[in-house]
Amino acid sequence: MQTSLSLSYSWEYVYKSWVNRYWTQKQKEEFISVFIAIKAVDYASNAFNDSGNEQEKSKAFRNELDILHKKANRWLIESIR
Predict the structure, then answer these.
(1) Which of 13, 20, 39, 61 could form a Cys-Cys staple with 44, CB 3.0–4.6 A?
(2) Angle, CA of 24, 34 and 63, to the nearest 5°
(3) Is 51 exposed, middle or buried (0-12, 13-18, 19+ CB in 10 A)?
């Protein structure tokens, strides 16, 4: 997972450049929303680097994953319409 996140971060400005150039304002906003959700998942996963409160961390991580899943699904569905 960390490799995927690192790769997406390294290409973040390229992706945003393409989005700004070729997509509508609504598509841009949806993309940024998905990218913010990806970062939230990353931050929640980093919490496991410190010991303790594993149940709370797991709940927070699952919550962020659920948010990302919903946003990504909505974004993908809207992109094919």
Answers:
(1) 61
(2) 155
(3) exposed
